[in-house]
Amino acid sequence: MNTAGGVAAECEGGSGSVRGLNESGSDLPGIPKTPGTVSPGVNSQNNRNMCYRVGSHRPEMKKKYGYVGIDWLQGSVGYNLLPNVVSYFSDFLEIKPVAFEYGEHRYNRTVSFHPFGIKIFYDSTGERSKKLHNYRIMLQITGTGLSYFSSDDLVSLVRVLFENFHFCCTRIDLFYDDESKRITPLEIQQIAKMGNVTGFRKGHYDDGTFEIGRPDSSDGSGMYFGSRGKNGGGKYMRIYDKELESKGEIKAIRWEIEYGKNFAELAFLHLYRTCDDLRKFTLMVGSLITGAIAFVNRQAKPGEKNIPRLEVLDFWRDICEELGSVRLRNPRKESTIQKTAGWVEKSVFSPLVKLLKAFGDEKFYGWLLNGLDEKQDGLTVKQYNEIQQYWRFTAEKDDIPI
């Protein structure tokens, strides 16, 4: 079985080696060398969770603010560190995980931190782990899970994963929400068809999913660059209307880069190297997004092959400048408990009022309280975790029962 030192060596060596990188550079195209590849923005101000705000400096555009953040994090950890990883997330979330005797990605066991979107896949025996996964377990944190981490906690997570668990990143999704909506996916498609995109060779446009007979039901259009999976190049860019996709919760055009293969390990390494400074960390997230793609004016200099000599399109220059002063996303505001309460108010109160009128006060409240008492012992571990989630991240102190 791999020791902790062996796991670290495995991250540093092999085909995904990062040992050859200098302190500020990358050996792969598309990964920026330093956060300095993005110019400083305007209206920068420090706020613990909201981090660095960004606003358009163009006078004709109403000032808007946006966010950057991490929307997916996945990678492997040494099999022998499984108890440590479980303990770390249990302590942070203050809940007990739920174990399942099945898994994904050829693993046959899962530890799930519901409802936080954090899963750990592992093999039931060391022998099986050695045979199928080279003594590695898989950690998967979805956008839902990452949304519970404040800016400081997110930076701390990256540091702990790298230093304590020798985390080898295999996928990381970074996003920028442009609340100015300065350009649409359809306009980006037109720019791409003219050949004014660098960083990718192929792209496709999607009009979105809709309900038949309801022309206003589309979940939004999107422009996509690159390919995913083992046949892809390790970079996949999505640009889509997040307001439609989130049903109005996030009013922005989302720019999302998915790094896989060697790119993911390098991107995670760059983020780790900025963990000592929240502002540098935030700049690096933005830099990793803008470093994956660029929009230039090829028509101004036909036949020019030297990309740096081409003029950058105005909208892209604005985005690059503003990503020098963006803010990390806030933790999620609405909990599962709040959603349940909303559902009860919408769907349950009316039938209860009908029963109240039919039974009368004394009979109705006696029946209701007896029913609630009987159900208390039937709460599942998932439901208890949802209560813990509400108490820790959402409820005011006066709301928490002693």
Please give the radius of gyration in angstroms. Answer: 24 Å
Strand and helix order: HEHEEEHEHHEHEEEEHEHHEEHEHHH
Low-confidence stretches are: 1-63, 325-331
Biggest sheet overview:
11 strands, mixed
The tally of helices reads 13
- How much is the average pLDDT? 77
Give the oligomeric state of the chains in this entry, treating copies of one chain as homo and distinct chains as hetero: single chain
Total beta strand runs: 14
Q: How would the blueprint of this fold be written?
A:
Layout: H1 4-12, E1 67-78, H2 82-93, E2 98-100, E3 109-113, E4 118-122, H3 126-133, E5 136-141, H4 143-146, H5 151-163, E6 168-178, H6 185-193, E7 197-198, E8 203-206, E9 222-226, E10 235-241, H7 242-245, E11 253-260, H8 261-272, H9 278-290, E12 294-297, E13 311-312, H10 314-322, E14 327-328, H11 336-359, H12 361-376, H13 381-393
Helix pairs in contact: 5-8, 8-9, 11-12
Task: Report on the architecture of this protein.
This protein is of the alpha+beta class and 402 residues long. The chain contains 13 helices and 14 strands. It has helices at 4-12, 82-93, 126-133, 143-146, 151-163, 185-193, 242-245, 261-272, 278-290, 314-322, 336-359, 361-376, 381-393; strands at residues 67-78, 98-100, 109-113, 118-122, 136-141, 168-178, 197-198, 203-206, 222-226, 235-241, 253-260, 294-297, 311-312, 327-328. Strands 1, 2, 3, 4, 5, 6, 8, 9, 10, 11 and 14 form an 11-stranded mixed beta sheet that branches. A hairpin with an 8-residue loop joins strand 9 (222-226) and strand 10 (235-241). Helix 5 packs across helix 8 (261-272). The chain is globular, with a radius of gyration of 24 Å. Residues 1-63 and 325-331 have low confidence and may be disordered.
